């Protein structure tokens, strides 16, 4: 069964610190993986997209990694800011049935 | 910039009422989607549409219907609202495929009493 598991469910860190969010998937055949950021009360916004051949992709202070062999991705946030407080959702695309599978998200709280 | 708007941010309805949620996108996208988002369950696809007057069931279509009469507009209809349809409803659009980046609206928080 195609699944996307994210960890941790929630995370609290101090402003200025770094953090890493995890996404493990069993989706096959794999097409691509996206990370979305969802601020409270708003819709998700795409941060990065990675295909099979890509290992790392950055978007400002956000860096996503992908290991297609172990079917794991991570989202690293550097020098966190209060505005990083949000839910981060991992979404994996499956190529055979043209479907996407959403993870349940990691809720990140940045404390001043 | 793609803009996806939803007709209401908050909505309160009574059990049995017919509810219309409307979504409009301004970037000529082919695909439009309706999701619901519940705590602990993440986003779940209700219906999507890949063209005008075309629709496909998602993972949880029961109790919902949709309408796409114009390319920019996609409506979600709750024929007879029930309390278990209390949720956050998110509309999204993408240029031409399910696997493309989706652009989301701000969401409608629906409470069914």
Q: Could you please describe the fold and organization of this structure?
A:
The complex is a heterodimer of chains A (112) and B (113). By secondary structure, chain A is an all-beta fold. Chain A contains no helices and 11 strands. In chain A, strands 2, 4, 5, 9, 10 and 11 form a 6-stranded mixed sheet that branches. In chain A, a hairpin with a 2-residue loop joins strand 6 and strand 7 (62-67). The mean pLDDT of chain A is 95. Chain B is mostly beta strands and 113 residues long. Chain B is 0% helix and 53% strand. Chain B has strands spanning 4-6, 10-13, 19-25, 31-38, 42-49, 56-57, 64-70, 73-78, 87-94, 103-104, 108-112. The termini of chain B are far apart. The model of chain B has no long low-confidence stretch (mean pLDDT 94). Chains A and B meet through strand 4, strand 5 and strand 10 of A and strand 5 and strand 10 of B.
Radius of gyration of chain A: 14 Å
Average pLDDT number of chain B: 94
**Main beta sheet strand tally, sense and closure of chain B:** 7 strands, mixed
- Strand count of chain B: 11
H/E series of chain B: EEEEEEEEEEE
Overall 3D shape of chain A = globular
Rg of chain B is 13 Å
Q: Note the beta-strand portion of chain B.
A: over 45%
Termini Cα gap of chain B: 37 Å
The residue ranges of chain B in which pLDDT falls below 50 over 5 or more consecutive positions are none
Number of strands of chain A: 11
